Amino acid sequence: MSLVFAGVCSHAPGITGRSDLADPDKRDALYAAFDDLHDRLEASRPDALIVIAAEHFANFFMNNMPSFAMGMADHYEGPIEDPDWLKIPKFTAPGNRDLSGRIITEVMKTVDVSYAEEWLFDHGIAVPLNFLTPNFELPVIPVNINCQGPPLAPLHRAWAFGEALRRAADSVPERIAIVGTGGISHWPATPDSGRINEEWDREFMDRWCRNDRSELLDYDDLTVYADAGQGGFEIRTFLAVSAAAAGAKGTMHFYEPIPIFAVGCTTATYDL
Amino acid sequence: MSLYYVQKYLYELNRSPSVQSDYRADPIAAVEVFAGDGELKLTTEERSALTDPDIGKLYHLGVNGQILMHFAAFHGIEWADYLERMRDGIRTHGPVREGVYALTTEL
Questions:
Q1: B79: nearest CB among A18, A190, A230
Q2: Which of A172, A175, A247, A269 could potentially form a cystine with A4 if both were Cys, beta carbons 3.0 to 4.6 Å apart?
């Protein structure tokens, strides 16, 4: 079949964990945007959902840090965080080991990717799933791009990884959806938590929607760090989705800086 | 000193109920089991920061916030208090020594 859905959304743990501390109007608007993203995903009738996340030391550490990793199991557990802290109960999400294996095999033709037959979901995947597949009825293929422990794979490699994911999605008979999760600008888990560069975010999302490769790769980690914080390194997940969308144009459905959530909360999709 | 091993211990603690149980029972002994004697893996300063616990010192040492915030939550430290303890760490000990989770605004 092919790729039937491509989108991005925020994954900050505060979105669920500190929901009671947010401006109720802004929080409810964000939750409605997540519900809208859920409906769009469901309407695409996917057989599986690839979630490209920026993992936060739940499964991978600097003793053996892959630039790119993909899950290959029939089920995954989460959240690794304290459920009371994240306000997401413990869950078991379905996977599809066979499908993962076929997709990973195809990706490996152009990108060296690690595979993991065990994967504990942290907020990078658990928060999006909480809204997008709340009943855990859709098989998930987790993907991690290292955005935490430098050296990080350069942006053009994240792009190549996204292209490989698209080629892999096109090579299997199943209907594949893909969602990237992460920043954009943010300084999470530092004393600067709540700082958000809205102007930078909107410029980035304009580029994301135009989906021009040269524009999207015209960033570097030094300037991203200065303008968008260490959380901005997570644009790799968004770029991978752009590459997977193969030139399709996008629409940002929601953007709202919510400081207690530590991020400009975003949902967007490509018109495949 | 080794920021790597400070973070490695916290990574394992965040993931493992048995490591958490050992730490709760006797944090000094638990950290010693991890690091052994001497300062090859952890200095006295780092051991104390882990066992006190001193969130501000750990932040100053450069512990990645994605690891540190869960250690703070493990100790029942509320979000606003967690942010303030990191600021206190900078006031007391100086700027973050290494890593990408440095303070970028004024105290």
A1: A18
A2: A175
CB pairs under 8 A between A and B: 69
Q: What is the pLDDT of residue B39?
A: 84
Other Cβ atoms less than 10 A from the Cβ of B14: the count is 24
Residue A39 domain flag = yes
Q: What is the predicted ipTM?
A: 0.93
Give how many domains chain B has, as a whole number. Answer: 1
Q: What is the CATH number of the domain that holds B75?
A: 1.10.700
**Tens of pLDDT, residues B25-78:** 999 999 999 999 888 899 999 999 999 999 999 999 999 999 999 999 999 999
Q: Is the pLDDT of residue A14 over 80?
A: yes
Number of independent structural domains in chain A: 1
Tell me whether strands A114-116 and A91-94 are parallel, antiparallel or unpaired.
unpaired
Residue A96: φ, ψ to 5°: -150, 95
Inform me whether the C-beta atom of residue A148 falls under 8 Å from chain B C-beta atoms: yes
